[in-house]
Design a protein that fits this description.
The chain has twelve helices and two strands. It has helices at residues 3-35, 39-49, 53-56, 58-70, 72-81, 83-102, 109-139, 159-183, 186-218, 226-243, 247-269, 293-320, and strands spanning 272-274, 284-285. The longest helix has 33 residues, at 3-35. A two-stranded antiparallel ribbon has the order 1-2.
């Protein structure tokens, strides 16, 4: 296996890691107003991802940077074609990140409701837009012989791309519900439990459509790729695990399902990295879009050194903040007095930036 193929696998690994890790906190961000009817309940959901959300987003940056360094022609063609879409992704990242930081700055209900909506909208847009972008790579975009995009903004919304975006959104919602079911207690957990089963079945239907459409799109063999079938079975398994109250297995299943779905896309895409709908001769491939051998060697050495360190650090973070976030009991009245939200394991519920503490109204306004 040459370094070109190795780096295609590495970039697929980065995208898979991003959706596995960021997928559940995007799901939590999108669902926090559904599982949380009061301010305290919403903060329970937010605090469950407080130590992780911004670290998870690093995988998106690394995926983009790895593409730029290993496959510069792919990066140039993709990001020029998706320029306006990338701006929307950046806007969604901004409003979502700012909502974590600013939600607790004031105790005004209107202020907090505004940032709650910003968090929800940003969390819904990110998997949808990124899914459309990844789906377009396989569906094909109007790319000419120089690798330049010749279409319009609306040409980005291909049928397959939109379906894949909605599929990743559905998987993220199911992943987030399974995470809240595992990570919280009280009424928030009960609502997440009620949502996790139906959301998993909805995600299974979208994954099934993805499997069928991808198989027809690739026209490779009689049967779909085994990874595609496994992705569908994993989502179904998650729904069954939720029904039988196997919370850990349900989260493990949604984790594997969203990872298998992203992997299935890249496996089907190979050896292309970006398909041209203008002419298949203009397809960007692993071989014609890559950097020179020396650049790939240097990058490989750096990746082999730093990737294990990042994985070790993130694994340690998840271990430290492994305890459930304790919320109000199911029978607690909505007007119950504010009490601190415990995150266990010595945690204050604060994220790496310290912006997600658990102080309540009257004590500084932190969320």
């Amino acid at each position: 296996m040459g370094l070109q193929v190795f780096w295609f696998i590495v970039i697929a690994f980065f995208w898979t890691g991003f959706f596995i890790l960021e997928g559940f906190d995007l799901g939590v961000g999108a669902l926090h107003m559904v599982v949380g009817k009061t301010d305290i309940e919403r903060r329970v959901a937010i605090n469950s991802i407080g130590p992780f959300w911004d670290g998870n987003e690093v995988w998106l940056i690394v995926a983009g940077a790895g593409t730029f360094a290993a496959f510069p022609l792919w990066y140039a063609s993709m990001f020029s074609a998706l320029y306006l879409a990338v701006m929307l992704v950046i806007l969604a990242l901004i409003i979502r990140g700012v909502s974590f930081e600013y939600r607790g700055k004031l105790t005004s209900p209107r202020w907090r409701a505004t940032w709650d909506w910003m968090m929800t909208i940003g969390s819904l847009l990110l998997p949808l837009l990124l899914g459309i972008a990844l789906g377009d790579l396989l569906e094909g975009l109007p790319i000419n012989s120089q690798g330049n995009y010749t279409g319009s903004f609306w040409d980005l919304f291909t049928g397959y791309g939109v379906w894949f975006g909605v599929t990743l959104l559905a998987l993220s919602l199911a992943h987030g519900a399974a995470y809240l079911n595992l990570k919280t207690t009280g009424v928030v957990q009960e609502r997440a439990h009620r949502l996790a089963g139906p959301l998993s079945w909805v995600a299974a239907l979208f994954v099934l459509g993805f499997v069928i459409w991808t198989h027809l799109q690739s026209n490779r063999g009689v049967f779909p790729n085994p990874i595609q079938i496994i992705a569908f079975l994993l989502v179904v398994g998650a729904a069954w695990a939720v029904r039988d109250d196997y919370h850990g297995w349900a989260f493990a299943a949604t984790t594997a399902a969203i990872g298998a779905t992203v992997i299935a896309l890249f496996v089907t895409l190979y050896p292309d990295v970006m398909v041209s709908s203008t002419n298949s001769a203009y397809n960007l491939t692993v071989s014609n879009a890559s950097s020179e051998h020396y650049s790939l060697v240097v990058m490989t050495v750096a990746a082999l050194i730093f990737t294990p360190l990042v994985l070790a650090y993130q694994s340690w973070s998840y271990y430290v903040f492994r305890a459930r976030v304790k919320g109000p009991a199911a029978d607690a009245p909505p007007s119950a007095p504010s009490t601190p939200v415990s995150t266990g394991a010595g945690s204050s519920g604060a994220g790496p930036s310290g912006s997600l503490g658990v102080a309540l109204e009257g004590d500084g306004g932190q969320t």
